[in-house]
Structure formats: structure tokens, C-alpha cells
Amino acid sequence: MLDGAKAFSSFSTSDPDEAKRFYGETLGFEVSEIDMPGLVALHVGGGTDTLIYPKGDDHQPASFTVLNFPVKDIDAAVDELSQRGIEFERYEGFEQDDKGIARANGGGPSIAWFRDPAGNVLSVLEID
Questions:
Q1: Architecture of domain 65-126
Q2: Could you give phi then psi for residue 9, rounded to 5 degrees?
Q3: For the domain with range 9-58, which CATH number is right: 3.40.50.1450, 3.40.50.1220, 3.10.180.10, 3.80.10.10?
Q4: What is the pLDDT of residues 53-64, one digit of tens each?
Q5: Do the Cβ atoms of 20 and 40 come closer than 8 Å?
Q6: Which sign does the torsion angle of CA 86, 66, 52, 62 carry?
Q7: Which of 32, 48, 28 is nearest to 40 (CA)?
Q8: What is the pTM of this model?
Q9: Are strands 40-43 and 49-54 parallel, antiparallel or unpaired?
């Protein structure tokens, strides 16, 4: 029944204009408004868009990572994002270096987490 459906992910924001600015200007993605007021389409690689929708005062940031951005060089990505004003999260239970990168501990990829203006968790992770 759904095997031919083009699925997409979505998450909420408290301020669609701020989300559009952050994802478009700070992170450098193409973003566009959709037919309904406040809906923002985030155009990421691979041809599938992510929908960001307004929740205003009801918004609660996700307590998990809503978007993961694979990169070939995590150090370069973290350095560039830091220069753009991004601050990286620190999590108990993860050994993270001075940049906030958890280095391939336990066989997983190196990863660094940060938040969007609405408090949603995003990450960059190093994938060959």
C-alpha cells in the first residue's frame, strides 16, 4: 500500500521565519515556503524535502536528533559551522574533544551535535 509513497520527515519550530533564516543562511540550504502560511520546505541532498511546521507557544524541541548531515571531513564541517556561530552540544556518556566531536567510539561514526534556534537537535557525522 505505501511501498510507492515518497516519504518525508518533518519537525516543528516555534518561529518559521527564524527557521528559514537559520537553515537557509546559517547552514546554507535551499529553503522555500509552502502553500500554507508558516510551512517551510528544507531542500536537502537526495531529492527528499524535510517539512518544518510552526507550533508557536506549543513547540517542544525534539529530545532526539531530527536531522543528521553526513560529511566526509567532520573537523572541517565543525570548524565551518563554528565560524558561522554554531555551538556544539556536550552529552554525558560521550567522550567529546575540544570541538565537541565524539570520535568513532565503539565503532560508530564520529559525530557532533548542535541545535537549531527552536532547540531541535541536529548532527554532523563523518561518513566515507
A1: Roll (3.10)
A2: -100, 165
A3: 3.10.180.10
A4: 999 788 999 889
A5: yes
A6: negative
A7: 32
A8: 0.90
A9: antiparallel
